[in-house]
Protein 1
Amino acid sequence: METLLISPAPLTALDLLQVARENRPIELSPEALASMQQSRAVIDALINDERPHYGVSTGFGALATVHIPVPMRAQLQRSLIRSHAASSGAEVDREVIRGLMLNRLHTMVTGRTGVRPVVAETYAALLNAGITPVVGEYGSLGCSGDLAPLSHCALAVMGEGTVRDAAGVSMPAAEALAAAGIEPVELAEKEGLALINGTDGMLGMLAMASIDIGRLIAVADLAAAMSVEGLLGTDAVFAADLHALRPQFGQAESAAAITGHLAGSALIESVKNGEHSFTRVQDAYSLRCAPQVHGAVRSTLAHAQSVATAEFGSAIDNPVVTTDGRVESNGNFHGAPVGYVLDFLAIAVADLASMSERRTDRFLDKARSHGLNPFLADDPGVDSGHMIAQYTAAGIVSELKRLAVPASVDSIPSSAMQEDHVSMGWAAGLKLRKAIDGAERVLAIEILTAARGLDMRDGGLDSSQSSPSITATRRIVRTVVEGPGPDRYISPEIEAVTQLVKRGALLAL
């Protein structure tokens, strides 16, 4: 993969995903190095100044009134990192920490933090070497930056703490850096503080989630089309002129996607031609209203992406070196903008999955499936079919509703009431990641169920009456899961289709 040049220009969500998840190599631009040298000169001019400058000659947080003598100012930075690397709990995913490090690196190269180029170069070296600090899930309140997670990363740059190498082996940071030929950094004045004051962790999670949710919406449109077709629904409600009557952002796009997936379906045509023994004027909401719900998720995602774009164009530190050379305190590290949209997306993801589970359930009820076996069982009674697969989806949806409770409405004061309102954005990001994983599994169960229902409806792929798009989807599913038959071990089948959803394999049609 081509090397990504890190400059003061904003990153994109795709840039971050490629570095964090796909190990894209990076390199600092000449402009980045020049901007850091320029702002470092401002900090160097303050090193011996007896007047108080936060982060240079004072303590931190509630200890900001404590004057630090000149000989102790470098030690101040090391002590800050060691004391703030206080995370606890389950280890955070590698890609989250890599995204956090890339975001902090990008803020450095804007020239607003006052760090030396060697610090940024060392961060880039760790990322390129695949060295990832071990960080626990607890420790950030989403204000004053993602303090504990960022401190663990700074600690690794100092050659301290625990990391995982490119092979995933846990080891002391000093050993990993030595093996990669990376010299640990001796932090200078202000640099410790500059490495931990940012929304970098929550922004990285938002960036990756925005791409994952974009894929999730497209899969949901496909799954809905499969359910409409498999349940002998109508495509009339997806007509463009009907959605033009309510021009909500995203709604028409989802309707068009579902229409496209259904185009050329012999099953849909058979309903229009009255070839079935039932008369149904309207489909259930989970079928008929899919564009309205999926479109609302698209709209929510677009808003979240606008927040991420603004954050990618930001330089967050406290104090910050301004463009005219002042060193000023500020509150830009507060994570509220990012925390809010992380929570908003968790609500949207939960609802997307909730509607999907309802479509799955319709396939399994003989009173609503229009001729399919109860629970899609091969021999109902002897076999249970997808009965418990629906339980799994229902259990996940219930969990997603709990995860949709916002983290950002909570605040617990810290630092002796100096930091008396915090965002909890880090927690919002972690729970959104869990929500996305759950929704992917719910959609996988719907696709697995719809494919089985369609096979039972038309006799399988050799006699497929599905649209070209859905026939192609069924064909992909059948490469990892066998067609209908007596009950078999179903958990691996759910996982196999989940991996198709996660990889976007169903969208390459």
Protein 2
Amino acid sequence: MISIPSLQCSRPNLWLRDHCQCSSCVHEVTKQRLLDTFEIPRDITMQSLSETQEGFNVKCWWSDGHDSYYPKNWLNKFARGDSSRERQGINKASLWTSSIAESLPKVYFKDVMDTDQGVGQWLLNLRIYGFCFVEGCPPTPQDTERLLKRIAFIRQTHYGGFWDFTSDLASKDTAYTQISLEAHTDTTYFSDPAGLQLFHLLSHTHGSGGASLLVDGFKAAQTLKQEDPKAYDMLSTIRLYSHASGNEDTSLQPYQSFPVLNHDVGTGELIQVRWNNSDRAAIDAPFSEVQNWYNAAEKWVQILRDPSMEYWEQLKPGMPLIFDNWRVLHGRSSFTGKRRLCGGYINRDDYISRFKMTNLGRAAVLESVIG
């Protein structure tokens, strides 16, 4: 165990030896482990331990003949258990209600397209608020696709990759109709639901309506927990199946059932809302629990439908909307006429990677990876 004053590290010797970061233990370019963990003696010991002359690192001589250097701030970080939040790119979320309309998170198309700093601010807004508008985007599919690819590659699904669609039921989903849609998250029928979703209204002719609805799922969950803790627990434990079976050649279903509210197993924080009553299939619970789930879900829907929770916006050409599909529920009012939209999905892992790289920097990200 480390015992230098100013360090509070109680990691086992085997763990410390296994996490040596020298070039013979970790590839300098790929950052992949080169050390054969299972050739380290189980009873390995430190022969000596000292601080380097600069005082930033600790040098350890091991009984297997290897020398290791460890940054002191790195050792302290893992002693405090700080790495989990950095791994996930957790940022302090600002929960909101309908009053968010008074101060909307926005960035400018030119800033996002010209600099990684602009991308970083865009993604920071997403981490804080769960959604963001982009002003000044040319109202074309080509420019919108370029914008979305500033984050990462666009996710391919049964809808295709980048969408450019109208309400023609080209895909057998209610999104491709003119009817209203209640607040929901997309792709609950995937084992790994899409992380981000972007919409850009390119045109709306010969009709009206079609206002877009956003609800902060984390705020709704917080309200449910405060008002009815048992209902919150019910939606956090009872699991649901979902499906997408409209197209004749597909019936998409996740590999297992999932609850509406999903939490990080380490920190206990709410990390994902999965709610789409239209795509819901079976309730994966004994019949003795089903009535309790319906009661909890009814309370949840009452909160989602509370006008004070709803932010409505009439989308317009030149101002794409992007939102975190693991947090923000979306919907729309019914409409007439012809609306043309484009957009796409980004995978959650790619979104968080891009956020961390543009806001934390590669050095800080890698430091949190290795522990």
